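Chapter review: from sequence to fold.
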Amino acid sequence: MRKKALQYINKNQIKDRQLCVNLIFMSALWAGNSRNEHLFDDELEIFFGLIANNESDDNFMHKLTSDQENMSLAEIFDLVVSTYKG
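The token string follows.
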């Protein structure tokens, strides 16, 4: 799904870095939702090549909202862009 996010970013000439990250992140959540899976912090750290910045045992679960669960990926992207307050 990251490829689809990058295509959307390029097609729409999005230059804001945080918005680009948000779109890629939401594409991962959407892909997980389509497989009836939720993503946890540790999985996102691996997926995005991040290093955890805390030593907490918390492993927060990320998932789409109930409103977003039945949206297409394109609709998710449009929603992210329209609600972005960068």
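Two observations follow directly from the output. The mean pLDDT is 89. The beta strands are 39-40, 61-62.
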